[in-house]
Amino acid sequence: xxxxxxxxxxxxxxxxxxxxxxxxxxxxxxxxxxxxxxxxxxxxxxxxxxxxxxxxxxxxxxxxxxxxxxxxxxxxxxxxxxxxxxxxxxxxxxxxxxxxxxxxxxxxxxxxxxxxxxxxxxxxxxxxxxxxxxxxxxxxxxxxxxxxxxxxxxxxxxxxxxxxxxxxxxxxxxxxxxxxxxxxxxxxxxxxxxxxxxxxxxxxxxxxxxxxxxxxxxxxxxxxxxxxxxxxxxxxxxxxxxxxxxxxxxxxxxxxxxxxxxxxxxxxxxxxxxxxxxxxxxxxxxxxxxxxxxxxxxxxxxxxxxxxxxxxxxxxxxxxxxxxxxxxxxxxxxxxxxxxxxxxxxxxxxxxxxxxxxxxxxxxxxxxxxxxxxxxxxxxxxxxxxxxxxxxxxxxxxxxxxxxxxxxxxxxxxxxxxxxxxxxxxxxxxxxxxxxxxxxxxxxxxxxxxxxxxxxxxxxxxxxxxxxxxxxxxxxxxxxxxxxxxxxxxxxxx
Length: 494
Description:
Shape: globular
Mean pLDDT: 88
Distance between the termini: 68 Å
Strand content: 5-15%
């Protein structure tokens, strides 16, 4: 093990970094053509297929991530319409986000620990999952990572050029997804705290975030954001108004409760297997310890990432909006960095404490190597689950019905999946209506596809009870999306 570690240390950092990015790219191209899921199909049908002049003026749904929709449209124009082309920008920005985190990791970690962090991100189940999702989340991660680097560097160098770049990146992130505002709110809160401290101490200059450049950069970002969203302002008002007016008893209302979100997130991680269930508590402790160690090295960096979490929860609670776990995806690189820093700091503490007692000081390289191998092996075992099933196998469900249904049978979709299935996979199918469920006897057998079954059942429990009496479950197709299973039902004999 020691010999292997020594050989790895001799590899130039630039070559090792390039190898990590190649691994990341390969992991994201594998299985890229699997079945599109609900949100991806909605993005394609409602936004990507629009002419550009209509696309940049359309915010009829929170499903539109404008910058991503534009890049996906460009990808499809170049390579033709396919799942791979629709997801290609997510792949490229996912790999780009890993590369963009390198200067941040190097601020607080050695080259070997920074490389290990990036390798774990390259093999991360969740990072790969989002990198194969035709949505703007990896693009958002890319822009917010660059903006954080610019903020930290600009805070100390006080360069107008750096802060102008910050403003442009600010707007790019906001145009990708409005949840970028949570990251910039953290930046703004830190800037405001520094200004207040300077006023309280009556300091006229010196230190971080001094002069006009930080203010100009933030103002430029805000102005550019307003400019790019100007064609959508009418749609945005109506869309957000509709979200705010949604009933508290809606099927997904529990996602507004932070305690439910935390419990659900822990449950999803633990459900990935016994390894994760066992590793989650010590990993959480090591992440907290690592964040503490990072804060001691670079308090500004730690403050940015730590502040984003309560700001995100507070704003969503105030707006009475759902707290989706994906809103915290921008934290993933910092969490991995904290885990790596925390684990290796713990190894150092154990070895230092055991020095002269257990005679393990010479085992430090071995323990470090074993820890690295264990984390990489754990990541690989979880990553394999990403390829075991599509996110949501709507295509497989349609194929199953087409294969099993007779020539006179009715093919339908029940619930929220009707629009993507009929709009993309099976335009000749029909939407299952309450009348079709309740009317009896039937003259033809009905096949129907159900996705998001929990949501469908909660939206009308009485109708769902009738449906379960009148239909038999025939096929269940698993999905890696939370609640992403797709179900094929057949009506009982007419």
